[in-house]
Amino acid sequence: MPKEIADVVVVGAGNAAFCAALAAQEQGATVVMCEAAPEEESGGNSRFTAGSIRVVYNGIDDIKTLVPDLTPAEIETTDFGTYTADQFFDDMARVTQHRADPDLVELLITKSFDSLNWMRNKGVRFIPIYGRQAFKIDGRFKFWGGLTVEAVGGGPGLINMLTAAANKRAIDIRYATRGLDLLFDGNRVEGLRVREHGEVREYRAKSVVLACGGFEANPEWRTRYLGPGWDLAKVRGTRYNTGDGIRMALAVGASPCGNWSGCHAVQWEMNAPEFGDLAVGDQFQKHSYPFSILINATGKRFVDEGADFRNYTYAKYGRVVLQQPGQFAWQIFDQKVKHLQRDEYRIRQITKVTANTIEEFAQKLDGVNAAEFLKTIREFNAAVKTDVPFNPNIKDGRGTSGLAVDKSNWANTIDAPPFEGYAVTCGVTFTFGGLRINTEGEVLNTDYQPIRGLYAAGELVGGLFYFNYPGGTGLMSGTVFGRIAGTAAGRADKN
Ligand SMILES: Cc1cc2nc3c(=O)[nH]c(=O)nc-3n(C[C@H](O)[C@H](O)[C@H](O)COP(=O)(O)OP(=O)(O)OC[C@H]3O[C@@H](n4cnc5c(N)ncnc54)[C@H](O)[C@@H]3O)c2cc1C
Fold first, then answer.
1. 473-492 and 112-122 are packed helices; what angle lies between their axes, rounded to 10 degrees?
2. CA distance 458 to 36
3. Backbone angles phi, psi at 261, to 5 degrees
4. Residue 178: CB within 6 Å of ligand 1?
5. What does the pLDDT look like over 437-494, one tens digit per residue?
6. pTM over the 0.90 mark
7. Are 252 and 193 in contact (CB under 8 A)?
8. Which among 39, 41, 49 is the best mutation to test ligand 1's pocket, defined by most ligand atoms within 8 Å of the CB?
């Protein structure tokens, strides 16, 4: 038998992979990580994130545990509220229309706080997301939407801190090394065939943890599984997540699971490149749309921009934009709500028009029926319930009434120039369909039995997300299930 390269081989070097590697190492296993990307492009989608992580917390004391360097002034001026396990369960059930696997959801939620704390003990630092998840009212910040902490330095910071933690523990990270196939003797997985810096070789190991993402960067698979038109979506993150882990596992008999025709997709700068750009990160997204109205090429609104807090609608509205003629929309703001725009509205790489009169503005909205647009604005302004107070921190019920598509919250008349328009298309984040795992992170075969020696975590796990997704759950899923899979893989090596 050729010599093993390590006890555990982890495929990928994003958040789920690092958590798996650190957990396996904690069990005394030797670990090699193989990452398809060269070092400068490594870190997967995790590196493109803002690093925001959805975690259960029962008040300020839990936040202080996660963020020990919170200052007295921050504590004094902030209402962190709570995000209880019950709230997280409700959110997962509601947004996935009760389809999410109850066993996986239970683990995700009940292990979230403990797992984040575990990460902190490995050297990852967190801070409150003041910039994006709290509005200041009467001198006090109030957090909304269940998303309260982020990694210091966002996604790049998260990957740097995880890489440092892995290096400190002698975990061997092989960049420019793509996993090709699993070594499988019919009974158990015995390693991985890789292409390392252009050369094909075998990595023998006692266990393999697949943590190499979904198939969002593969236009052929997107069209095949998500449907026609999805080849036209922009990819928000890494170009390396082409479904390899899923393909390798299916080839040795793994059971497919979850919402294979579903994905996370957002409104994204219309002229963004085909794949994500690490220099821009997540800033091509345009997430202040609950305070705007969305207009398509026909000059009409087509979706309830204020149906819920941004965290609970943004992941499904990319699909809605993809379905519009020409696959684009314009987000329309006036000066009354401009101060509510997130930082991503102030980048250079943006398709933006402004005008001082609504008539001139209508002419500037490229590709839009100007006459219909002006009619839409008139009808919208007349339908706003101006007697209800506007409040961005709560679902304020200040909607419209009587329109073909009403806006449920945060409606304001559009009449304070200069008017601003931002062009968006669909940006796909990650795919929901993947592999079936059990609560130990083992990959199951089509008889629902564990494939010995094979584990999975992160985006390529199916069964958690259907139709939609609560913001910040992707990283938490990678952390919880990466830790579970790595722990089991590390322990299995001792048997
Ligand atoms: C722009 C953007 C912003 C986001 N913001 C947030 C956020 O703020 N909070 C949040 O929770 N989620 C966010 N997400 C979603 C989040 O990125 C993912 O849910 C999460 O990072 C997935 O982690 P992962 O480890 O499974 O995958 P990834 O981080 O994508 O890691 C997969 C790794 O596998 C590697 N790989 C692929 N194929 C192979 C192969 N054959 N062999 C070896 N390596 C391979 C890739 O190079 C990559 O490094 C965002 C995503 C994007 C794109």
1. 70
2. 16
3. -95, 10
4. yes
5. 999 999 999 999 999 999 999 999 999 999 999 999 999 999 999 999 999 999 985 5
6. yes
7. no
8. 49
